[in-house]
């Protein structure tokens, strides 16, 4: 029988809403989109088309419209666009990476609608790299058995997508953008559905301070929770605000324990915190490989034999292998050897790096490492939240009038471990789907109900200690003892509270709320699956844990419940890698993995 609760979990109290001044102004919008990355801007553009010429769509962004995770995406967008590739093969790669925790219907939607979503993005003006024949240039990343990653500017895909979407939004007079505004909480009607939201504009725009935006629907596209951890690839704005907002409004969070740690993040030293430089999986897709020391000094390619795809195995496999080797050697990092890239094509490595990975090249050199001649020090760091606000395949949450898309959401496509370059695709596909159903479901104008949720804050000074605790106890390696220690620290932070409502304390309150929810989910799931690695339960246990952990906030207390997964009709064994794509694990030292 599947578990429904854990004796190790105790009720955890967190604020029911953020303490904040009463709204000093009020505005109206038919739909408010929270977030300005690929998911948010795609949703806004599609919604104005779907709602018609009289619709009023507002995009609220925490900083400038171009600030967020999308512009940092290096690798690209995965879609079955190449010769011989099919959505079915993309589906299998996604399900395998998801380690038995994907929603099969959501994955099917992603891979079947993905190619058209990419073509639509091209139609909006996104300029992807082309091969010499003028066709889309496709590459491969971890977990993929085909070359299906479209990219732009070599390694600047996210920046190009963001540019194209920002330009398209700028051309549309129906979309209003509110910049430098921090959304505090949803405002609910008597029926428990959306009536609007409160936000704080930070000194710019028509208003300053806390205000109320009345709305008929809200679309959350606010990104992930990377700042929960001390080392992350996420920008500083990724404090999980949308997830916390939805939780406090009555929506469920799902699969929060599945936090993906990118295996190859540039190691900057033991004291480095915050956003760290990502070394894209596409570098390994072009032939770079991991070593525990230079091969010329007796080092080994430790991924050989670990997985059939070796250095291009799914991210959880590579991250765990790196961490294991770090523990075995006592080293604080491993090495990525990319010095030979381009030579298999007769290209000079310097020219190759300048053409294919100019951004990564410049970043590495800015930190004193030249990947043309030097090995790159790498270690896993928090990269992506596979879980989030639970939605159906149309982006609907359990709160009427509230939708979610992109990293803030848990659509079910990623399961326990996101397949490389599926994240941008998810934002494109599910934002388009929200625009298909929202017009027919658009609520009337509802009066806000009296808010009886208990307000609260956590002291802003708790941020650094919180992040270090989460990295040490709830990071790549987890155990019951470490999770209990983290839980105690988090409970103390909530009990101590805070008394000054402003941006830093609001962010830290959201971080503590999500850290508490994540830690409880990780304690409940007593197995190792995908990106969730329990040292005290090292095996995957499908008999007990094939399903999801759902988290709710009820009367100020968090609850965790296990929901068994629906069976899938996909036969993974029948769709193994094609023979011509099998990885050669006996490749000579110095040669790249296909």
Tags for this model:
594 residues; alpha/beta; Methane Monooxygenase Hydroxylase, Chain G, domain 1; FAD/NAD(P)-binding domain; Flavocytochrome C3, Chain A, domain 1; seven-stranded mixed sheet; six-stranded mixed sheet; 14 helices; disordered C terminus
Summarize the structure.
Helix content is 30%, strand content 19%. It is α/β, with parallel strands linked by helices.
List the helices and strands and how they pair.
Layout: E1 12-13, E2 17-18, E3 26-34, H1 38-51, E4 57-60, E5 77-78, H2 87-97, H3 104-123, E6 138-139, E7 149-150, H4 157-170, E8 175-178, E9 181-188, E10 194-201, E11 209-220, E12 231-232, H5 241-249, E13 253-254, E14 259-266, E15 274-275, H6 281-285, E16 289-291, H7 315-329, E17 334-337, H8 349-356, H9 358-366, E18 376-385, E19 388-390, E20 402-404, E21 409-410, H10 422-441, E22 455-456, H11 463-473, H12 480-496, H13 503-524, H14 542-545, E23 547-554, E24 557-564
Parallel strand pairs: 2-22, 3-4, 3-11, 4-8, 11-20, 12-15, 19-21
Antiparallel strand pairs: 1-24, 5-7, 6-7, 9-10, 10-11, 13-19, 13-23, 14-18, 16-17, 17-18, 23-24
Helix pairs in contact: 1-4, 1-10, 2-3, 3-10, 5-13, 8-9, 11-12, 12-13
